[in-house]
Write the structure tokens for this entry.
Amino acid sequence: MSDQNQKKEEAVGASTDTRNVNLVLKQEEKHTDEIILSFPALFAKLKKYFLPWLLTSVILGGFIAGVSMFFVTTAATPVQALVSLNYDGIERGKNPDGTDFDPNVFKNPRIIEQALKECGMELEQLETIRQGISIMSLIPVDAYERLTAYYSAYEEVANGQLSALQSVLDTSWNSTQYRISLDYKEAKLKRAEAVDLVNAITYAYKDYFFENYGYNEALGGALVATNYKDYDYPEAVDMFNSSLGSLKRYVNSLASDDTARFRSTATGYTFADLRDTISSVQTLDLDKLNSYITLNNVTKDKDRLEATYEYRIESLQREQTALETRLKSIVESIEAYEKEDIFIFGAGTDDTNLQTKGGSEQYDKMISQKLSVTTELAEAKRDIEYYKERVSVLRATKVGSADKVKVVEGELASLDTKLKDLVTLVNDTANDYFQNVSLSNSYSVLVPASTEIVATIKSGIINAILPIAGVEALLFVAWLGTAFVQALMSESEKHKKAAAQKEEPETTA
């Protein structure tokens, strides 16, 4: 019977080995003890502790998320907006007019003042709010990688070829996107107020941008700010002539940039139409009035006017002499100047370097100076002759009667009205052109500031992801470890009891 029992036990052990994991624990006293851990036993323990693990995980995860949400909603998280500038020159850090761009322009008191008025806030808060605003520039990844590659290539080039890459190093990149942040706690504002204010600042900058780099309002203001009644009649004519000339030059500059022959929907005018209108006022109204004043010698004070003309003649003659000297110096410099050599590396048929005479920035600059001085010199000579003629007429002709003075004053009033109307037309047309054509995409608000609850919840969840993941991982390991240890202890206890029962019959025998 003992042999049969032994065979049965061996058979049972063989069948059990296919489903069990045998863990052999060796001890100093007894090297043959075996502890068998079965998968059903491990699964039972996992199942037993699953609900406590799940509840603990949910409770701790919710607690961490709640704490994160609490800090997000109560902490002074700055209100932020993202804006973008997109015009020729901004990547080199320049404004549309060629001056250096300063990101702190978003903190300009004029812009903040306009935003405060828009939000109905007190202007006394201006400086406190300025202190709470910070500007961060963002550079696209591709631009950063390109610049890094340029400098890397520069460092690897041999010393004799460094000049070949100097032009590459001149290629730089300045940010075109900026993040505007407002620490509303420091600014002593509520979050909702800060959001409204930041959005108002981003849109106030748009007005500031077009005022400074769109239509030149300073020019328009200067043209209409001077009162013609403060001058003698001939001087008033000169003032109108100068104003119309300035306005015409500005319109011509806009027309030269306008390749699509823009027609304003606000005024119905093109820049060519405005130029023709200004020319008509100059030739038909202004020249006619000037001739009338000159022929009839209409003046408020003949002696004072004659003295003024003589002074202008002397001043223009001095200016003429200076311009002639300067022009002579420029011409001599141009004649003595040799254009810089330009090397084209590897352009020869046998991989040699070709040398050619090419353009020079300095040479072109001197040519431009020559043209400018020549124009100024011609205008000075023309004005000298004009004022000499005026002096001759004043000396040879009797002062105009009161009736003629009345006619001149009426014509001057009409000219003043026409000039103001022209300035308004140019203003409206230019603003329409800049905002809808030339600078339509130059400035935009990519991401406005927001107080949406979804954004707050999203921020809280993002901040809680990492700690929740860490805690959940620890709990998962603890669950597996506890189940494994408990299963091992249970199976070990069963194994010991089975071994003890097996030894009892043998001891009795």
